[in-house]
Amino acid sequence: MAFIAAGNIILEYIIGDAAVARAWTSYFATLCNHEANDFRIKAHGLSEEYSHLDPFAIIVLTIICAIAVLSTKGSSRINYIASIVHVVIIVFIIIAGVIAGLANANTANYTPFAPFGPRGIFQASAVIFFAYLGFDSVATMAEETKNPGRDIPIGLVGSMVITTALYCLLALTICLMQPYSQIDKDAAFSVAFESVGMGWAKYIVAAGALKGMTSILLVGAVSQARYVTHIARTHMIPPWLAQVNKRTGTPINAIVVMQAVTAIIALFTELEILAQLLSISTLFIFMLVALALIVRRYYVSGVTSKVNRSKLIFCLVVILGSSTGTSIYWANSEGWIGYVISVPIWFLGTLGLWVFVPLARTPKIWGVPLVPWLPSASIAINIFLLGSIDRASFVRFGLWTGFILIYYFLFGLHASYDSAKEYEEKGSEDGT
User: Fold this and answer.
1) Where does the record place a coiled coil (predicted)?
2) Vertex 322, ends 316 and 326: CA angle to 5°?
3) What is the DSSP string of 81-137?
4) Where in the chain is the domain with CATH 1.20.1740.10?
């Protein structure tokens, strides 16, 4: 399970950075007064979904790779300065957008408020999850943090609250300027400002977007390398990827390999395909995190009794099964009867866990509240949203998961075992 999670976190970052790199090209084209696809090359021999080649994405990722290789501290300083600029741009967009919206007020833009109904809201929620990818990156910086037990949770929760509030304000702002049906999918705010007669503002927005996406790519490059380095230290993937350069203090091999793979995907693949696949991976990982939290709180090897372990497994199966049933019903039916069956089963599974299984571990510094209700709800919500993703994305996700499992059983598992045995024998010889 850990290797599946690790493999999908790697996929998450590769796909996420590829999507951002392609969006970078779209905004750069807007900044240069071109259409979003003008800087892409049409390859007529390929299928439509993979036919718009993006050389600018390759150039951007190459530059990001060079910066990330040179210094982690340097990358952090660049991101710190860029974040200040980005906040200024966001405030500008909100204020200028509200002014533009009021000057060109059309209350019909908010009617209907939910044009596609509840199903449209949940389908959009499933796809927009990829926008929350960057929060994982905070956790990867534990080795560079003075007090990770305190600072990492504050960074995660604080940044998520601020960002979610800004997302909502930006969504309200753009709908003041344009009806939802006219919003440009590639460079939304640049086109929106132009549509209300503020053509000059689109350049500020495009420049701000480029800066923001460049920061995202830089954080992604460092985070990718951190994940790969940690996995490589176990020898589950080649340990060559865990080597850290003594002069720069960065895992150069991991950075270069990951950025090369990201660049190849960014060159060919359309943004919509990347967003759907990324959302599956993100939702799956978030579900596993919630599941792991429950296991960590309720099970300790050698301490938890067999009876309590059996009760824990039974409750988790009920929670996962009922959540999956709800998601399948949502994906295939417009009715409501299925929810009357699956939701109470989920509730009973969570209640049984809360009442009949004693906690085996309590957090020392920082703890998620309302356990098991909050993580169980997280499992249910993430699996439910998976029911809104298209079938083709599930096929791609299944192929990737199948590939990493084959690699794990043929190579990773044995290399990790051999490495552990060698370490154990060396410790016995020198008495440590």
Assistant:
1) none
2) 145
3) HHHHHHHHHHHHHHHHHHHHHHHT--GGGGSSSSTTHHHHHHHHHHHHGGGGTTHHH
4) 1-270
**Cα(259)–Cα(241) distance, integer angstroms:** 13
The β-bridge partners of 52 are 42
pTM given for the model: 0.81
Q: Which fold, 1-270?
A: Amino acid/polyamine transporter I (1.20.1740)
Rounded Cα distance between 267 and 260, Å, is: 11
Residue 83's Cβ-side half-sphere holds a number of Cα atoms within 13 Å equal to 11
Contacts of 352-359 spanning 24+ positions with Cβ under 8 A: 352/311, 352/314, 352/315, 352/318, 353/294, 353/298, 353/311, 353/312, 353/315, 353/316, 353/319, 356/311, 356/315, 357/298, 357/308, 357/311, 357/312, 357/315, 358/298, 358/308, 359/297, 359/298
Judge contact between 254 and 242, C-beta under 8 A. Answer: yes
Tokens standing for 88? Answer: 């200024």
Asked if residues 190 and 209 have their Cβ atoms less than 8 Å apart, the reply is: yes
Q: Which tens digits make up the pLDDT trace of 311-363?
A: 999 999 999 999 999 999 999 988 889 999 999 999 999 999 999 999 999 88
pLDDT in tens, 77-108: 666 666 677 677 778 777 776 676 666 656 78
207: three-class secondary structure by DSSP: helix
In the chain, DSSP finds a helix count (H) and a strand count (E) of 15, 2
Cα–Cα distance for residue pair 275/110, rounded to 1 Å: 26
